Fold:
Amino acid sequence: MLAMPSGTLACPDVDRQRRLAAQLADMIPGAATIRVGLDDPKQKWPHPHAIVKDEAGKTVEPSRTAIRVAARWILRAWPEADWTRPHTFDLAHATLTRSDPIAAGRGR
Structure:
């Protein structure tokens, strides 16, 4: 992100997060939330992983590529987040919150 001569960012983070939410909603139709972490169960080492849910809380099954892209974009948008624990990105509000691992595992 580039800074203007005044030292302020050329693109505030809130706008960036809203654009990201809009892009992900377009890329994954029906998605309401995306739970992201470095806990891909198919990998032995930390690897980006995402679980997409619709408004009703049902899992949406986008393509493997869409899941990887979504996870990486979200990880990069919040580099300061503690990614040792999963987080949930709410597309309607463009907000990221730490996920409760017990609640996140239900309804998988």
